[in-house]
């Protein structure tokens, strides 16, 4: 899984499971009361990336949002800072909202992170779960589907590290164009397609022969198994090469199940209610939270033993090569995030790998 220098390699379809963590740079509760500033949260995110490497985790991902409850609008800048403070952990977006960005600039920014990190950069290209970036950047939401389709097609061409001649409808065409800086050693920038659960999105990833990343944010995670199987089947039918599959879940680890549930609940509830108010959802209940924390729920919260069992079920059931835990949840304090990262790396990850080995 790692090169002789200790750098974690990009996963393949044959790799043993990698375990990573992700954050959106959620605005946290400040130690003395009130909320932490956006600037301090960004500095805390860098510290959390360093902590993820120290804990032995394989990947650190940073999301992109353009709203007041999250601090990170430019994941690549934050990842560049983490790159300079780490040596082995892989670094990427979670996700890059490709629909409202420009594929050439995305390629160039991540190629820069790749250089700074000695080939550790990744892109997870998706449409995101919020739409605020579309009006912010002057894009028409009526083109939501077509924007992503067109821009993913261009990004896939740019990833080949060859001059690109490309024609689109919503983005100006290119003639013999190439993104810079070049990737070292004639390499390729490792790029996933992030999907939320539609078969069309899964087939799109297979059509471009790019790795698939599943966003599991509700229900039984094993309900995504038909999509994973569809992806593998589509790759074969489209003459693609075998590709890894990754997924992310929400989670939080503490010393005991009760401590984890008690600590997380008020922050998770407030976050879900804030998002729900924008989307017309009813208030989030304690019953929903506890159901999500059950064995077949989507929330990996509890002691290291409990979380390891849940991650093993998900990774084994879906045949994953990468499984990330989004550890930050609304105002959950930075100190709790750091402890959760430490437990995920030092206690959960070894248990998961051992459990998967015993099941093989």
UniProtKB/TrEMBL annotation:
- Key word Oxidoreductase present: yes
Q: Which UniProt keywords apply?
A: Monooxygenase, Oxidoreductase
Q: Which GO terms describe its molecular function?
A: monooxygenase activity; oxidoreductase activity, acting on paired donors, with incorporation or reduction of molecular oxygen
Ranges for domain Luciferase-like? 33-313
SUPFAM superfamilies (alphabetical): Bacterial luciferase-like
Q: Which InterPro entries match?
A: Bact_Lucif_Oxidored (IPR050766), Luciferase-like_dom (IPR011251), Luciferase-like_sf (IPR036661)
Query: Is this entry keyworded Oxidoreductase?
Result: yes
Pfam families registered for this protein in UniProt? Bac_luciferase (PF00296)
Q: Which GO terms describe its cellular component?
A: cytosol
**Gene3D superfamilies the UniProt entry points to:** Luciferase-like domain
Q: Would you tell me the protein name for this molecule? A: LLM class flavin-dependent oxidoreductase
